[in-house]
């Protein structure tokens, strides 16, 4: 989207405003699909952005869905993903959510423990059904870079536990194969290939030891893209060839399995920009400048959720500067009443003035839904979706208190 269109969108919807460009979703989805074997499935992780209008474009690019809550499931269905192609993941799934997912026709559950297999078996049996499952396995080796899911150790079976579980499966559960997710933001084709090779070894070990014939192996993802800073996630040169070689033979019982990959951020990160307005500029006696904008960690909080408060790298483009202003270094803070509401410690910005419109790039993934949306009870940012010059629609997350069962009436 060009600058003119961004200014017009900000005028129409106000700020803080997320704008998504479906053209970018199309390009990045096609790029990732082309780097993966044609026979492999690519699952879009709704965790990265559950807005149905955005998810629907990823679906149109040939992806299935990976969800990990009842809300994400509903968003995936609204985006038109067929239920039987959906993978339901995540630790601690309750009987109620499993029952809802089964009822809505979810095809496959990634099961994280023997307890969860039993719970799924019980829910499926009560519904007079059988449920298909993948065994989520702890990676035996961590990824070379990025945010490791293995770090927390809360995910999946250790290999021996998986082998034991296979010997004692609930009748109503059909194990179709295995699922390994090494982590996010694995940079470089070499590191990605190493990660997939290691995930494959883990799966091969478990399947051989358990005598499990895997029909499906989900090797995870980790395809990178910068967050809230300018730049790109790099290309995939060599990935297709490397995967072809890696997947040519399998040390698992039975025929070669179907392979699945997952990505949240890669198809959509670039498509999203956050537009925010400068509300105040404070220059202290020592010359230090603080810029107050109308978007805080309630609107752009992705890294907060990852345990980081300071995000020194957030990048801002001043859309109101016309090349006539000097660049200055400033702290950028949001409007929340907490000193932790900082978007950048030292940002380089063309001299910001009150009323200027700033753009943060690469926030199509882990934007509003990954933020502290309810903190300070401000309205969540509007999310406007564009296809070229056309606005497809605009939405806003809902927050605020509603009466909870078993007290359906609000207090008088
Ligand atoms: C979060 C997550 C993803 C998506 O990660 P990205 O870095 O956004 O691609 C994929 N699979 C699983 C199991 C996840 O938990």
From TrEMBL:
<dbReference type="InterPro" id="IPR002433">
    <property type="entry name" value="Orn_de-COase"/>
</dbReference>
<dbReference type="GO" id="GO:0006596">
    <property type="term" value="P:polyamine biosynthetic process"/>
</dbReference>
<feature type="active site" description="Proton donor">
    <location>
        <position position="337"/>
    </location>
</feature>
<comment type="similarity">
    <text>Belongs to the Orn/Lys/Arg decarboxylase class-II family.</text>
</comment>
<dbReference type="InterPro" id="IPR000183">
    <property type="entry name" value="Orn/DAP/Arg_de-COase"/>
</dbReference>
<dbReference type="Pfam" id="PF02784">
    <property type="entry name" value="Orn_Arg_deC_N"/>
</dbReference>
<feature type="modified residue" description="N6-(pyridoxal phosphate)lysine">
    <location>
        <position position="47"/>
    </location>
</feature>
<dbReference type="Pfam" id="PF00278">
    <property type="entry name" value="Orn_DAP_Arg_deC"/>
</dbReference>
<dbReference type="InterPro" id="IPR009006">
    <property type="entry name" value="Ala_racemase/Decarboxylase_C"/>
</dbReference>
<dbReference type="InterPro" id="IPR022643">
    <property type="entry name" value="De-COase2_C"/>
</dbReference>
<keyword id="KW-0663">Pyridoxal phosphate</keyword>
<dbReference type="InterPro" id="IPR029066">
    <property type="entry name" value="PLP-binding_barrel"/>
</dbReference>
<dbReference type="InterPro" id="IPR022644">
    <property type="entry name" value="De-COase2_N"/>
</dbReference>
<feature type="domain" description="Orn/DAP/Arg decarboxylase 2 N-terminal">
    <location>
        <begin position="23"/>
        <end position="265"/>
    </location>
</feature>
<dbReference type="GO" id="GO:0009089">
    <property type="term" value="P:lysine biosynthetic process via diaminopimelate"/>
</dbReference>
<protein>
    <submittedName>
        <fullName>Diaminopimelate decarboxylase</fullName>
    </submittedName>
</protein>
<feature type="domain" description="Orn/DAP/Arg decarboxylase 2 C-terminal">
    <location>
        <begin position="17"/>
        <end position="364"/>
    </location>
</feature>
<dbReference type="GO" id="GO:0008836">
    <property type="term" value="F:diaminopimelate decarboxylase activity"/>
</dbReference>
């Amino acid at each position: 989207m060009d600058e003119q269109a961004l200014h017009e969108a900000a005028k129409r919807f106000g700020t803080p405003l997320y704008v998504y460009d479906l053209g970018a979703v199309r390009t990045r989805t096609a790029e990732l699909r082309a780097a993966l074997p044609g026979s492999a499935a690519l699952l879009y992780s709704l965790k990265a952005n559950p807005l149905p209008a955005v998810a629907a474009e990823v679906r149109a690019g040939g992806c299935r869905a990976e969800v990990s809550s009842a809300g994400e499931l509903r968003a995936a269905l609204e985006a038109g993903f067929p239920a039987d192609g959906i993978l339901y993941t995540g630790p601690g799934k309750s009987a109620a959510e499993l029952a809802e997912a089964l009822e809505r026709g979810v095809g496959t559950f990634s099961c994280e423990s023997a307890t969860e297999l039993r719970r799924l078996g019980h829910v499926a049996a009560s519904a007079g059904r059988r449920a298909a499952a993948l065994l989520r396995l702890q990676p035996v080796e961590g990824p070379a870079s990025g945010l490791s899911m293995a770090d927390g150790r809360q995910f999946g079976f250790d290999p021996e536990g998986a082998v034991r579980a296979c010997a004692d499966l609930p009748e109503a559960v059909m194990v179709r194969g295995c699922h390994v997710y090494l982590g996010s933001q694995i940079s470089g084709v070499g590191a990605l290939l190493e990660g997939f090779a290691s995930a494959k070894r883990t799966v091969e070990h478990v399947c051989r030891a358990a005598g499990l014939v895997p029909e499906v192996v989900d090797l995870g993802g980790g395809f990178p893209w910068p967050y809230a800073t300018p730049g790109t996630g790099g290309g995939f040169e060599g990935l297709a060839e490397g995967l072809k070689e890696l997947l040519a033979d399998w040390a698992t019982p039975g025929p070669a399995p179907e392979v699945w990959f997952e990505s949240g951020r890669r198809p959509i990160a670039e498509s999203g920009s956050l537009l925010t307005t400068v509300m105040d500029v404070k220059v202290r006696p020592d010359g230090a400048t603080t810029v107050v904008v109308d978007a805080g960690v309630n609107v752009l909080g992705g890294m907060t959720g990852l345990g980081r408060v300071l995000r020194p790298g957030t990048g801002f483009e001043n859309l109101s500067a016309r090349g006539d202003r000097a660049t200055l270094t400033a702290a950028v803070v949001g409007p929340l009443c907490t000193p932790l509401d900082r978007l950048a410690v030292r940002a380089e910005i063309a001299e910001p003035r009150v009323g200027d419109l700033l753009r943060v790039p690469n926030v199509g993934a882990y934007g509003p839904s990954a933020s502290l949306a309810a903190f300070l009870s401000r309205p969540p940012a509007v999310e406007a979706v564009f296809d070229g010059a056309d606005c497809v629609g605009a939405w806003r997350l809902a927050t605020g208190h509603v009466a909870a069962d078993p007290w359906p009436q609000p207090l008088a």
